Amino acid sequence: MADHQAIPGVSLTSTITPHTTYVNIVTILVAGMGSFLFGYANNSIAGTLAQTSFIEKFLTGSNATSIIGGILGGFQGGGLIGAIIQAPISQRFGRRAATGTAAALVTFSAALQAGSVNIAMFLAARVICGIGAGIVITNCPVYMSEIAPPHIRGMLVGNHAISIVYAYIFSSVVALGFYYVEAPYAWRLQYVMLAFFGLMLGASLFFLPESPRWLCEKERHDEAWIVLRRLHQSKQDPEAQLARAEMAQMKAQIESERSLPTGYIHIFRTPHLRHRAFCCILVWVMGQSTGILVIANLTPVLFGQLGFGTVLQLGLSIVWTTVALIGCFINAALMDRFGRVKLLVTGGFLCSSTLIVEAVLQKYYLGSTNKTGINAAVAMYFLWILFYGSTIDCAAYVYISEIWPTHLRSSGTTIGLVSFFACSIAYTSPASEGFATIGWKYYWVMICVCLVSATAIFFVLPETAKLTLEEIGERFGDTVVVHFGEQFETKTNDETPVANGTEKSAPELQETVV
């Protein structure tokens, strides 16, 4: 193994206090601009479908329901393509390059959407937008997981989902504001804003470092060490012991995996990797079967079906997304304490139970004058999003990005997000037509799949909370070259919790780790 002269010796048997630096937190927050861009690109259509100016231009014909299905499905189909091409871009050129590609595609597509002169042009632009969005939603949690310290990785990487929901809220507020613009171009302003955020994401790349794990994989160890030291060095750890230990473990693990084969065929032929792939697929089969994107993209329309006017449709959508944000903060706070798997399973059953009640209420009160029944149906939408946000939203993104070894993390996360978009296409494309024809019965399609997949998650997914990215591999049967155990002991009498490294280094690291 090549000696890394930039790092002086460090003992993994020393006591190291876990900490999170201001620089690390700010870097995660800036990286969340990519997550925000996905959320705005995805949810911008929700407000657009309620805009009178858009309806008058594109949705006055008898095929309006089919056009809505095409708009929703086109974006998700583009997202599927983006999720697939993200892996080769990210693996070859780096995580920052993948984000930059996404920013360029979304900005270009936003200009096309804002300038669309016919529905064909708008549909094509939504597909391109989906490709960029698919790249960034796949790449962001990978990047965040690779720079976050293990003791609060769940909370920090949860910023991915939180930023998406921030975008949902902002998009909903903007849609309501643009509703009062009395001009035929009012609906176009939503996509002018999208172009602005695409440019903002591109500019943010000047402030973001490359992933140290990707740098290490490319044998750019000096650069990786500089990034790690910048992220983790603090007054509490002036010698950057945490960064040194992480660098030693990361370097050893990547070197041990360097000769291993890559690619999707290898993943599905190898039992412990196939297990990971199945876990990723299962997480988003369950996640999408809660109905999240169906409801998120159609909230104004669904509120309209319950008898509310356009202003109330858009206003209730703002409140709905705000409740989603509250749920995300709860989810991020609970993940590292209770674990990802328990939250995912609990969320699957809670969301299904709420949708069952929603379906029953709509069966008896949709289209009626019974205000109590209609208000109860609205309340179920809010309770449902609180359950989803508090249990699934953050945990799902964190889990699928952290269970893969470095050399397969982009490809593995892609498998999870392909499941995300494939299920989204299956549910959102026919949703408008489904609600128009079979109404409340459409919920049962999602409920049945959600209950089965949530049960499967309980038995199939191993827990990953508080483990380093390298140590998570042991839960799937991998060999970990160096252990950096972090076992937190809560002390009384005002003693500070400490993280104890309990394992010795591997023989081949003796040149790097003393």
UniProtKB/TrEMBL annotation:
It is found in: Membrane. Gene3D superfamilies: MFS general substrate transporter like domains. Its main location: membrane. One of its GO terms (cellular component) is membrane. Pfam families: Sugar_tr. One of its GO terms (molecular function) is carbohydrate:proton symporter activity. It comes from the Eukaryota. It is a multi-pass membrane protein. The chain crosses the membrane at residues 21-41, 61-85, 97-115, 121-144, 156-181, 187-208, 277-299, 311-334, 341-361, 381-400, 412-430, 442-461. The keyword Membrane applies. Residues 493-514 are annotated as: Disordered. Keywords: Membrane, Transmembrane, Transmembrane helix, Transport. Residues 27-465 form the Major facilitator superfamily (MFS) profile domain. Belongs to the major facilitator superfamily. Sugar transporter (TC 2.A.1.1) family. This is General substrate transporter. It comes from Lophium mytilinum.
